[in-house]
Amino acid sequence: MKSFCSILFVCAFVFNLSLYSQNTLSEKDRAFAIKHLNESKAELLKAIKGLSEEQLNFKPSENSWSIANCVEHLALSENNIMGAVKKSLEEKPSTESLNELKTSDKELIDMITDRSSKVKTSKPFEPTNSFGSYEETLKAFKDRRKNNITFVKKDKINLRNYVMDLPFGKIDAFQGILFMSGHTSRHVKQINEIKSNESFPE
């Protein structure tokens, strides 16, 4: 009898462990997201390193963004995109919704980093000097990115089980993290375009 109970206990333990593993993000996904977030942050810091105030505020045209505008947009995006990710976690996981997902991780990253198609941002993402200075804006980006990386490192929820609705379609919450990171890389490209402008200050 004791032997039979022991077998039942082991089976129950293995079953619960299996369920737990399904309800947490895989270590492969977690490592990939953290790596991507760190890399896109490093790309940004490299692109803006040593720029003067004149260079930061240079605009290729009257209606263009400056580099300082791009950095503020990214600082705002860190909160707004991550807010959407966390909002999706308030809903119950849905197998039906997950079956509707059609975009792979690679396709999502390729799409958001592609600068060949330009999209006008929505009002909550528009730079308005909301942080008071460039220094405070950059600090806000760094602090928010650090917090978002910590979230990915420590959160126990499987982000793959939750769905976000974006204008181009549905993605899972893990892809929302990749979207945020890829969005940074997209604007690093924009910053480098500004720096390559023939009128960019020396």
Describe the secondary structure blueprint for this structure:
Layout: H1 2-22, H2 27-48, H3 53-57, H4 67-88, H5 95-99, H6 105-113, H7 134-154, E1 163-166, E2 169-172, H8 173-195
Antiparallel strand pairs: 1-2
Protein name: DinB-like domain-containing protein
InterPro entries: DinB-like (IPR024775), DinB/YfiT-like (IPR034660)
Domain DinB-like: 37-191
How would you describe this structure to a colleague?
The chain has a single domain, classed as Four Helix Bundle (Hemerythrin (Met), subunit A) (Up-down Bundle), CATH 1.20.120.450. It is mainly alpha-helical. Helices cover about 65% and strands about 5% of the residues. The chain has a two-stranded antiparallel sheet. A hairpin with a 2-residue loop joins strand 1 and strand 2 (about 170). InterPro entries: DinB-like, DinB/YfiT-like. This is DinB-like domain-containing protein.
Largest sheet: 2 strands, antiparallel
Number of strands: 2
The tally of domains stands at 1
Spatial strand arrangement across the major sheet: 1-2
H/E element order: HHHHHHHEEH
Can you name the CATH architecture?
Answer: Up-down Bundle
The helix fraction, in percent, is 55-70%
Low-confidence stretches: 1-21
Structure annotation, total helices? 8
CATH superfamily annotation: dinb family like domain
Q: According to CATH, what is the class?
A: Mainly Alpha
